Automatic annotation (TrEMBL):
Listed name of the protein: Argininosuccinate lyase
GO molecular function, one term: lyase activity
Keywords attached to this entry: Lyase, Plasmid, Signal
Coiled coil (UniProt feature): none
UniProt xrefs under SUPFAM superfamilies: Periplasmic binding protein-like II
Similarity comment: Belongs to the UPF0065 (bug) family.
C-alpha cells in the first residue's frame, strides 16, 4: 500500500512539474529593468525580449523601473508571483547595493531566485584627461606624486565597490568621487574632473574606441582575450581584484526548480541568436554558461564579498 501511495505521489509531483513547464508562459511576460531607458542593461533587455518572444510565442514586455541603485525595480520583482511571468534583468549592482543599503524591503539572499548568468566580462579601469600614464603600473607611480580621484556611477554601484576594492588591494592613495550614473562619471573623466572610472567592457569601451578615454587595465590576473592590447592588473603586480562584471536574470523566491531550469535553457537559446551574439561582440563580452545552481553560488559569493569589503573599508558608515 505504501509503495502504491508513493508511486501515486511521485506521478502527481511529476505531472505538476511537467505542467509548470508546459504552461509557461501562459500570457505576457514582464522583464523589469531597474535602470532608465537607453542604458546598457536596457539595450540588452530589449533585443533579448524579442528573441524570447520567438521562443515562447508570447509578448515579452520590458518595463523600466529605475532608482535607488536598481533596488526599486528589484524590490518590485521580489513581490511578484513566482510563476515566471515577472522577471528581472540586473547587473552585479544587485549584489553590491545590499552591502550599502541597510533598509532594503527584501532579503537579498532568500527573496530572489538566480536564474541565468546572461553576460559576463571583466571590469576595465579607464583613465581620463588628467592621467598621463598608459597602464596601471604607471598610474600607481602617478598616484605617489599627486592626489588621485576615482569616479563612480554612484554610492553602492559596482563601479564604487570595484574602486574601493582596487584602493584596498593596491594600497592606492586615492579618493572616491560619486556621480549620477556611468555616463556622468565618464564625462567628468573627459573634462579632467576625476582620474579613473571602473566598469564593464560594455560601459567603457565605446569611450576608449573613439579616443575619449584610455584603457589602463583589465582587472584580471591575465589579459582578456577580446582585449589583447589592454594590460592586466596582474601585470602591475596587483591581485585580488579579478571579480567579473555580469548581467543576469532573476525571479522571485519560491519558483519551481523545473521552471527555473526551463527559463535558463530558453535564455541560453536566446543568447545564442545572431542578434545577441552581435551585441556581445560589440560589447567585448561573452555569454554566461552556468546552471541556475552554479549562478546562485556566484551571486551569493559576490554578496558576501561586497558585504565584507563594506565592513572593512567602512563604506556607508
Amino acid at each position: 500500500m505504501k509503495t502504491f501511495l508513493g508511486a501515486v505521489i511521485a506521478l502527481t509531483l511529476g505531472a505538476t512539474v511537467a505542467s509548470a513547464q508546459e504552461d509557461f508562459p501562459n500570457g505576457p511576460v514582464t522583464i523589469i529593468v531597474p535602470y532608465g531607458t537607453g542604458g546598457s542593461t536596457d539595450m540588452t533587455a530589449r533585443p533579448l525580449a524579442i528573441e524570447l518572444e520567438k521562443i515562447w510565442g508570447q509578448p515579452v514586455v520590458v518595463v523600466n523601473k529605475p532608482g535607488a541603485g536598481s533596488m526599486i525595480g528589484t524590490t518590485e520583482m521580489t513581490q511578484a508571483a513566482p510563476d515566471g511571468q515577472t522577471l528581472l534583468i540586473n547587473t552585479a549592482a544587485i549584489s553590491t547595493a545590499p552591502a550599502l543599503q541597510k533598509d532594503l524591503q527584501y532579503d537579498p539572499e532568500t527573496d530572489v531566485t538566480p536564474i541565468s548568468l546572461l553576460i559576463t566580462s571583466p571590469y576595465v579601469m579607464v583613465g581620463g584627461a588628467k592621467v598621463e600614464s598608459d597602464d596601471f603600473a604607471g598610474l600607481l607611480k602617478e598616484a605617489e606624486e599627486r592626489p588621485l580621484f576615482m569616479s563612480t556611477a554612484g554610492p553602492g554601484s559596482s563601479s564604487h565597490f570595484m574602486s574601493e576594492l582596487v584602493i584596498d588591494a593596491a594600497n592606492l592613495p586615492a579618493d572616491v568621487v560619486h556621480f549620477n550614473g556611468g555616463g556622468e562619471a565618464a564625462t567628468n573623466l573627459m573634462g579632467g574632473h576625476a582620474d579613473t572610472y571602473i566598469s564593464t567592457t560594455a560601459s567603457v569601451m565605446p569611450y576608449v574606441n573613439d579616443g575619449r578615454l584610455k584603457a589602463l587595465a583589465v582587472l584580471a590576473p591575465e589579459r582578456f582575450e577580446l582585449l589583447p592590447d589592454v594590460p592586466s592588473s596582474g601585470e602591475a603586480g596587483i591581485s585580488g581584484v579579478d571579480i567579473k562584471g555580469w548581467v543576469a536574470m532573476f525571479g522571485p523566491a519560491g519558483m519551481d526548480p523545473a521552471l527555473v531550469e526551463k527559463i535558463n535553457a530558453d535564455l541560453a537559446k536566446a543568447m545564442a541568436s545572431d542578434t545577441m551574439k552581435e551585441q556581445l561582440e560589440q560589447n567585448f563580452a561573452v555569454a554566461g554558461k552556468l546552471t541556475p545552481d552554479e549562478f546562485k553560488d556566484v551571486y551569493l559569493r559576490d554578496l558576501k564579498t561586497w558585504k565584507n569589503l563594506a565592513e572593512k573599508r567602512g563604506i556607508g558608515q
